[in-house]
From TrEMBL:
PROSITE patterns: HTH_TETR_2
Domain HTH tetR-type: 10-70
MF annotations from Gene Ontology: DNA-binding transcription factor activity; transcription cis-regulatory region binding
Coiled coil location: none
Segments of this protein annotated with the region Disordered: 189-213
Tree of life domain: Bacteria
Protein name: TetR/AcrR family transcriptional regulator
DNA-binding region boundaries: 33-52
Bias-annotated ranges (Low complexity): 204-213
PANTHER family: HTH-TYPE TRANSCRIPTIONAL REGULATOR RUTR, TETR-FAMILY REGULATORY PROTEIN
Entry keyword set: DNA-binding, Transcription, Transcription regulation
InterPro entries: Homeodomain-like_sf, HTH-type_TetR-like_transc_reg, HTH_TetR, MT1864/Rv1816-like_C, Tet_transcr_reg_TetR-rel_C_sf
Amino acid sequence: MPGERTYHHGDLRRAVLTAALDVIAADGPDALSLRDLARRAGVSHAAPAHHFKDRTGLLTAVAAEGYALFADALAKAPGLQERGVAYVRFASTHPAHFQVMFRPELHRADDPALLAARARATEALRSGVDGLPEAARGEDARLAGVAAWSLAHGFATLLLSGNLSGALEGRAPEDAFRTLAGLVFARGAGGDAQPAAPPPRPAAPTDGRTAGS
């Protein structure tokens, strides 16, 4: 049909996923409709169901892709502090994935791709905690992992919802989180979790004025 978009083998799945991510980023996952996504992708109403079966299948695919990208981002970061920074960066650059990944009621818990990708991400965070000195990790490494996850996830969630706009006072979110993580895990953490240096103080005026005048 004139004007109707066509896709080579394998392109349709990507097109529907991309359209879904656009909708989620703009209106949240609850706004998803397979019929609307088919219209956006320029295909028949039944085409998305061929790849994803239903809405839950589509959201499961979004979550699995998100966890795979997330695991890759975490694995590239050296040490727990920088993995926390990577966590915040991922949430900022992949907000649609992030919204779906941590809502288990939206996807199929037994999906193999989702389970494998989530396990890789979990391992990346766990190994970051294991790399801390014992004094910083404490007696319970598992609880230290929960603390690190809560810190990064809470910061990322507040950032995405706009609740940190005033609190950061124009400071880059990644720099702010790096300092925050250093304050929390600095106890015995050596160079891995030291707070970032504060910005330099303004130079003293040389023309007789007082500072701030």
